[in-house]
Amino acid sequence: MKEINNDALKQQLIMASGYCDKFSADVIPHTHLFHILAGDYIVREGALPAYMFYLARGRTKLYVTLANGRISLVDFFNAPCFIGEIEVLDETHASRAVQAIEACWCLALPVKTCRTLLLNDAQFLRHTCLGLVKKNFRNIVTSTRNQAFPLVNRLAAFILLTQHDGVYKEKHTQVAEYLGVTYRHLLYVFAQFSAEGVLRKQQGGYAIGNRAALMALAEEMEPGAALPGH
């Protein structure tokens, strides 16, 4: 993650992402700009973030380490949204790891100097509450889909969500847990996709061979929905 000193680009991202609409206070003088490469971490687990981030462009994923040492995939965030807002509200909250799926641009406010300003900003608090409600609802939808739709549909949507530049690289064990299926069942569907030419196995992952087929399967769960890469 690298801080970028480019006022013109920062202003462009502020305008395009609706950043200022999330605050009643003038936060522009405090705002920093960061660029995060695919695979880099925006927040590391267990470390209290120095900044509250606003994902202006890109996609990220959230991890948590369980008591038994297993790393569990929890959620995905698409721009625009806050990252680290819970740590602003609750300093004792244990941070979870947030990793970039693709190159991301984040606007950021230093927590140490801006916490009091943010906690007294009703507009920020309202948007934070709405954002947390949306994240909770998305998790409910994911849980419902895990029970209502075949793995072939859910895996297609998951691949589209997590691929980067047409390549999918997620760990099978974490994906099986996230989708609520056995490791063997997951491998069976991957083999099916490979045999049909939907995916092509390569070192370290799979190249997407037929994006249209994946999108058709994903859209069966939510016709007309905008999907990543659509």
UniProtKB/TrEMBL annotation:
CDD domains: CAP_ED
Keyword DNA-binding belongs to the record: yes
Record-annotated Cyclic nucleotide-binding domain positions: 38-135
Ranges of residues in domain HTH crp-type: 149-212
Keywords assigned: DNA-binding, Transcription, Transcription regulation
Database matches in SMART domains: cNMP
InterPro entries cross-referenced by the UniProt entry: cNMP-bd_dom, cNMP-bd_dom_sf, HTH_CRP, RmlC-like_jellyroll, WH_DNA-bd_sf
Keyword Transcription regulation listed: yes
Name the UniProt record assigns to this protein: Transcriptional regulator YeiL
Species of origin: Pantoea dispersa
